[in-house]
Design a protein that fits this description.
Length: 961
């Protein structure tokens, strides 16, 4: 009696290695009910030996040489299966058993191959290599990861609370992580879903064959032209999210007899207005892949990717604003000539050119080599102003609360006379009525007024400009600027594997990145005026008697559109990494050990000489960091269906450029106490994989040390020293500051459970539970630097945030859903999701002794009690929420044509109370002033939030021909 055997192999995929003997490999394809699956396509990667299953689901591959192989099995209405196997030199025939294919989009068994084997479940020590090479591959997601990504991810759930900057995203062998902030700009290949859809994933901190990675997964994508389905694929999508429409067309030639393959794709996503008010979206994507197979041992690919885009963004707001205008309110736009115009528009085009070489050196070893070059600009517009107040309608002085809080403030200080009370009351009533009625001249940007003010001949201002700088004309006091990053990124990497035998393999990854980014601000639109000036409007408070020039090397401060202003500098970083690994199987164990040695060198070069900073101009010294790491994975096969999996990691990560330099826009200062961040991560999982029950239960613990956090904001009452030109020292109470929190320690611990149970062959129940405790473990050091203090770094001591909750994600999540898959190739599913224990990150400057210290007596404020301080600084907990999602689909086959129609709805009950994120404002940094605002009916400086979008839908039509 043949037993069904489901084997877990958490090893990532390999190219085939060819030897000299010849073997026939065969298997049978069946569906979940045991019925044969006929006419499925069976593609052997890297080989022309592709076949089609016959009427009983049988297929065979002949004349295979010894080595390691990967199969892709696909058929319309069924999920694509990816499986790997080994061929030993002494084998003449190899039976892969029965491979089970599941109906399309069940999402229950993606990537799972169930194998019938002649060997007993417990006989894992036998000589066959199937014990560790066929099963649930890293390219598939278990039920927990799938629900977390596709259902809870829509509500900003982040598994284990881990920052995405600790992960690795790779495209065609090279890292796409940017050195400035550690993030990945997915817009660089936006819209190319059908090209980049099926990555290989090493989840969380588990080791990967392709890179050492971090704590939040290694995602590896390859875009080889020959690996896409031959023919055309057209896709049309409709949605009400960030964009409204998506259209794409892909064509693949397949591999020709002469060894050439081509794949091309174009896509567009657009919306005149998204779900948020005043937002639009217009993005294109293009891909061209060319592959040349010289022989069975040597293949090269060229990939060209470009995705120009233009889109506007939405603002965060205080609760007061949302109460007036609803959760879709956006302060970044206003009416101009009957059309909505946004000040915040992102535009970018940074194309990628990638060349990859695949070489089978000999029967045991393979070498993949990649080279990549990316260049182009990313621009983000915003309003800037000089000599006038902030024009944003949501600026605190433009809201009704400003007048209420002015009454409270003057009453507290005994300065509220009847005339002032009447004035403030009338102003409040007028403002309140405008906001409640939605007067666009008040609640949105008033473009008409901005233009009128800039075009008006201001005699006083003109005389002042003439007297101070000898310039004339109508000065724009409010204007649009672009913050530009002009990147040039070169990557080279090599991936080498050596198979000692069919159970032991050595891996070596070597990578190099050269990152150069020039960052500057330029005038985009003068909005009716004739020029803007490149002078700091706060120069008299920052440095009395100074010129205030942002660039003292250029005496021309009268700027036109396209001129650079405020800042201009270059960030550079070179980084090299060596990542050896060893995988072996012995007895009931699969073991994977991966190591890291890395070196990075970073610097800043200032192109402007700022009037406040001597170190603003020229190149800094190189800041060098060595990094090391070790990861390990042990899989213990209890039997063919039950497994224990341990993952452990300890490594350090060099600071990214934005963490290294305090305020690179205007100086070359480096963060105090800057060090590499150290991570220690462990998890232990129990995994069950059967055709009808799948379970993953995991406990995890992740510790972070020496982390650096940088924030920039305007603060009052900060008490920073300023050195005047005559050498005297004065104190400044208000300024734009850069806050550095160093030596941060965090702990992320908890448990995860994912369950998938087939009640019937066509009906399954899926569930997820995640419970976490993500906290700060210490009281980090806080430093502040401002324009008012020149190059002085002020120490604010400790931020007392130990045991505070980390922000940015719910720390508890639950999901329960049903999926029905009809034999007639349609499906329907629905799930319930619950999210709780979501917090805002604590603002460090508010948790220092400076907050309670009277600057005049250097003692705590007399009337301030410990209970009051605890109330003022208690963690900001966000509301819990639950949501219902549903999806449905149907596929059709008409001869050679395949049609797939799917639809999904998220947040069916239109819950708009859920806050996806936000931040505490650090405007008032002294307890008495903070308390006045905090206890106000509508705080001016309360937290700013982003709310969930409400009910959304996505409809997708796919047509293959």
């Amino acid at each position: 009696m043949i037993k069904k055997l489901s084997l877990v192999s958490l090893f990532t995929l390999l190219p085939a290695s060819f030897y000299f003997a010849q073997t026939t490999v065969f298997a049978y394809l069946k569906d979940a009910e045991g019925k044969p699956v006929e006419r499925a396509e069976v593609d052997l990667k890297g080989n022309d030996n592709d076949v089609t299953a016959d009427k009983i689901g049988y297929f065979q591959l002949v004349d295979l040489q010894p080595g390691h192989y990967q199969l892709v099995i696909s058929k319309p209405n069924y999920e694509t299966k990816v499986m790997e196997f080994d061929v030993a030199s002494e084998e003449k025939r190899k039976d892969l058993g029965v491979v089970t294919l599941y109906s399309t989009l069940t999402n229950a068994d993606q990537g799972l191959a169930i194998i019938d084997s002649d060997e007993d479940d417990d006989n894992s020590s036998s000589s066959g290599s199937q014990s560790s090479t066929v099963g649930l591959l890293q390219s598939s997601m278990d039920v927990f990861s799938r629900i977390a990504a596709f259902d809870l991810g829509f509500y900003w759930f982040r598994p284990r609370g881990i920052d995405g900057r600790t992960g690795e995203s790779m495209l065609n062998g090279v890292s796409m992580v940017k050195s400035d902030n550690g993030n990945v700009d997915f817009s660089n290949w936006g819209g190319l879903n059908e090209i980049t859809r099926y990555p290989e994933i090493s989840s969380n901190h588990s080791p990967s064959e392709y890179a050492f990675g971090g704590n939040s997964s290694v995602v590896y994508k390859n875009t080889r032209a020959s690996e896409y389905r031959k023919g055309f694929q057209f896709t049309q999508s409709l949605t009400n999210r960030n964009y409204r429409n998506r259209t794409s067309l892909r064509y693949s030639s397949g591999m020709s007899k002469s060894g050439w393959a081509f794949t091309a794709m174009g896509a567009r996503r657009w919306a005149e207005e998204g779900i948020q008010e005043g937002t639009f979206y217009d993005a294109y994507g293009a891909y061209l892949g060319i592959e040349k197979k010289f022989n069975d041992k040597h293949t090269m690919t060229l990939n060209l990717i470009g995705a120009p885009y233009r889109r506007s963004t939405a603002s965060p707001s205080t609760q007061e604003v949302y109460d007036y205008r609803g959760v879709h309110y956006n302060s970044y736009w206003g009416w101009q000539d009957g059309e909505k115009r946004s000040e915040r528009v992102r535009r970018g085009f940074q194309p990628l050119f990638q060349l990859q070489d695949f070489w089978k050196i000999n029967k045991n070893s393979n070498l993949w080599t990649s080279a990549s070059y990316q260049f182009g600009k990313d621009k983000g517009s915003r309003l800037d102003w000089n000599g006038v107040s902030n024009p944003s309608p949501a600026y605190y002085r433009n809201l009704p609360s400003y007048y209420v809080n002015s009454i409270i403030y003057n009453s507290t200080n005994n300065t509220l006379d009847p005339a002032l009370y009447t004035t403030l009351t009338d102003a409040y009533n007028t403002s309140l009525q405008s906001w409640q009625n939605g007067d666009p001249n008040v609640t949105q940007l008033n473009w008409g007024q901005i233009y009128a003010n800039n075009q008006k001949a201001d005699a006083v201002d003109q005389a002042e400009m003439g007297r101070l700088y000898g310039i004339s004309g109508k000065r724009s006091k409010i204007y649009l600027v672009d913050d530009v990053s002009d990147d040039k990124i070169f990557n080279a990497a090599t991936h080498y594997t050596y198979n000692f035998n069919d159970r032991t393999k050595f891996i070596l990854n070597v990578s190099y990145q050269n990152y150069r980014s020039e960052l500057y601000r330029e005038v985009k639109d003068l909005l009716g005026g004739e020029y803007a000036i490149n002078v700091d409007p706060f120069k008299e408070s920052a440095k009395p008697g100074s010129t205030g020039f942002y660039n003292t090397l250029d005496p021309n401060i009268q700027l036109r559109e396209g001129d650079r202003m405020t800042y201009n500098y270059i960030l550079r970083r070179q980084e090299a990494k060596v990542n050896p690994g060893l995988k072996l199987s012995t007895g009931n164990f699969d073991i994977f050990v991966s190591a890291l040695a890395g070196y990075s060198s970073s610097n800043r070069e200032g192109l402007f000489k700022h009037y406040l900073y001597e170190n603003s101009y020229g190149k800094t010294k190189d800041y060098n960091f060595w990094n090391y790491g070790l990861k390990g994975q042990i899989v213990y096969r209890i039997n063919g269906r039950n497994f224990l999996v341990y993952n452990g990691a300890v490594f350090n990560q060099a600071p990214f450029l934005e963490d290294l330099f305090i305020n690179p826009r205007v100086n070359g200062l480096v963060n105090p106490n800057i060090r590499s961040t150290v991570y220690t991560a462990n998890d232990l999982s129990y995994v069950m994989n059967t055709p009808f029950i799948k379970i993953r239960a995991t406990a995890f613990l992740v510790d972070t040390e020496n982390e650096t956090n940088v924030q920039r904001f305007f603060a009052d009452g900060i008490q920073l020293n300023n050195t005047n030109p005559d050498g005297t020292v004065s104190q400044v109470q208000s300024a734009f500051v850069t806050q550095v929190m160093s030596n941060v320690e965090k702990r992320n611990m908890g448990a995860e459970l994912g369950v998938d149970v087939k009640i019937l062959p066509t009906l399954s129940v899926q569930g997820l539970a995640s419970y976490g405790q993500y906290t700060y473990r210490n009281n980090p050091d806080v430093f502040l630097v401002s324009d008012a203090s020149g190059s002085n770094v002020a120490s604010f001591g400790k931020a007392y945030i130990k045991n505070y909750k980390q922000g940015g994600t719910p720390q508890e999540a639950f999901s329960l859903g049903l999926r029905y898959n009809s034999p007639k190739y349609w499906w329907i599913g629905a799930n319930w999701n619950y999210l709780d224990n979501n917090y805002l990150d604590p603002a460090p400057a508010l948790r220092t002794e400076n907050f309670v210290q009277n600057p005049y007596s250097s003692t705590p404020y007399i009337d301030l009690t410990n209970e009051q301080v605890r109330d003022l600084l208690k963690p900001t907990k966000l509301p819990s929420a639950f949501f219902f999602n549903a999806n449905v689909g149907k596929s059709f086959v008409f001869g050679k044509y395949y049609v797939l129609l799917t639809a999904s709805v998220n947040n069916i009950l239109d819950n708009k109370r859920y806050i996806t994120g936000g931040f505490e404002q650090t405007r008032e940094t002294k307890a008495p002033d903070y308390a006045l605002d905090y206890n106000s009916p509508a705080p001016s400086f309360g937290p700013k939030y982003w709310y969930t979008q409400g009910r959304s839908y996505f409809i997708n039509l796919q047509f293959r021909f």
